[in-house]
TrEMBL record:
InterPro entries registered for this protein in UniProt: DUF3570
Stated name of the protein: DUF3570 domain-containing protein
Any Pfam family: DUF3570
């Protein structure tokens, strides 16, 4: 899994220098938003580094290290290279519902089984992955008021390979107070899950894994070893300097995803009229998804503080709609340090094919998934960041945040024993990050 798309599960890092010159700060903020640069002289390499820990209570834990190198050349060309390494371990919900008795599940590889205690949410405690990601971006002016950038992306996990390219064109006008940005990216991903790809709605094989017929029986629940998907994103954005203190940005993005979008590690419980599980069926999702979003952000520089407020609305053809409100308020101190509280709220509706379980008395739907990540939910983040510019000009910062994700009932009736189970358990997590720029 990608840390970045669970990674709605982690928050973005924001950086802003403590500048006494307000106009200069706004100019730098504009360039940071657009990926362009205002310096015309060659500079030494600049490095940003960060280490992040993300831990859910009794579930997934993640550790991520990042180093970003930036080189500015005399002709206003800029090279950015970023290396990211992260690892995930712990227990991940497999999609099945809790039951009033001990449940047995087969591991995704087909090698071995694990048991879940009565009334506990089924979690696969063998979840583990390591990802290495490399991004490179080249930016340069094409003509007066025109700046272009192009980049490449490589990400490799144990069972996942992602390759991508992107390009961006920024056009300045209105005396450089307004910038229009056009961006396009394309990704090709290959998924090779351990144990292969399960057949949609095939029942999870349970029994004696040492049996001589086990391997063939398990293979009969598979459709292959690997699958691919492509993602094409288009973005158009407008950034406007309102006055010497205020900067505003508005973006629209359109994303089309084609290919294998099912999660091969997720199942749905098939229950009877008493709410008791009769089998675990592998999920099935559509092979196409179109997402759209609008994003608004505003930064305002007071005398001794900076306010950053943003709102994002996303909708797709899976019938998921989400609202995100994010605000940060940076208090600037005279010793070149700052304190930045952070509040984020997220609300999401369920996909049209989401359901927490399947009823054996009803025909199987075309698509179904019990993955809480595409279910109805709300989440909030509360955090605090402290940053300091050191005597040698380098910057240090530490960020601590609490994240709470709360799945909710989208209107499903729980029969029999399920009425006494927690079908929508909350997830609480702690985020700790250290960053150093030099």
């Amino acid at each position: 899994m990608q840390l970045t798309q669970t990674k709605d599960t982690l928050v973005n890092q924001q950086k802003a220098d403590n500048k006494k010159n307000i106009a200069g700060a706004l100019a730098l903020a504009t360039c940071a938003l657009l990926g362009t640069d205002v310096n015309a002289t060659e500079q030494d390499w600049q490095f940003d580094s960060a280490f992040l820990f993300y831990g859910e209570i009794e579930r997934v834990m993640a550790a991520e290290a990042m180093v970003n190198a930036k080189k500015e050349f005399a002709d206003e060309q800029v090279l950015n290279v970023r290396l990211t390494l992260d690892t995930l371990t712990g227990a991940s919900a497999n999609g099945a519902v809790a039951q009033p008795y001990v449940q047995t599940f087969t591991r995704p590889s087909g090698k071995g089984q694990y048991q879940i205690n009565a009334n506990d949410t089924p979690l696969d405690n063998t979840f583990h992955d390591t990802r290495v990601q490399l991004n490179a971006q080249w930016t340069q002016p094409l003509a007066p008021n025109y700046t272009a950038s192009a980049g490449v992306h490589l990400s490799k996990e144990y069972d996942y390979l992602s390759l991508g390219i992107n390009g961006n064109l920024a056009i300045d006008f209105n005396q450089k107070n307004t910038t229009l940005s056009l961006g396009l990216s394309h990704f090709q991903d290959t998924f090779t899950p351990e144990g292969g790809l399960p057949k949609p709605y095939a029942a999870m094989l349970i029994g004696d894994s040492e049996s001589p017929t086990w391997d063939q029986s398990f293979a009969n629940t598979r459709i292959g070893d690997s699958e691919t998907k492509t993602t094409t994103d288009f973005l158009i954005g407008l950034t406007q300097v309102i006055n010497r203190r205020m900067l505003m940005q508005l973006n629209y993005s359109h994303s089309v995803v084609d290919g294998y979008l099912t999660d091969p590690f997720k199942v749905l419980s098939l229950v009877d009229e008493q709410g008791l599980s009769q089998a675990q069926l592998y999920e099935n999702r559509p092979d196409q998804r179109t997402k759209q979003s609008v994003y608004w952000q505003s930064k305002y520089h007071f005398d001794n503080s900076i306010m950053d407020l943003s709102y994002r609305y996303m909708w797709d053809d899976w019938n998921i709609k989400s609202h995100t409100v994010d605000t940060r308020y940076r208090f600037l101190f005279s010793d070149n340090s700052y304190l930045e509280p952070h509040v984020r709220y997220y609300q999401q509706s369920a996909a049209e094919f989401y359901q927490p379980f399947l009823n054996q008395n009803q025909a199987l739907p075309e698509f179904a998934s019990a993955d809480y990540r595409i279910g109805e939910m709300n989440a909030y983040t509360l955090g605090l960041k402290y940053g300091l510019r050191l005597s040698d000009g380098n910057d240090f910062a530490v960020r601590v945040e609490y994240y709470s994700q709360n799945p909710t009932d989208a209107g499903f009736s729980a029969p029999g024993a399920l009425a006494n189970q927690d079908l929508y358990p909350s997830i609480d997590a702690l985020i700790l990050q250290f960053s150093y720029s030099f």
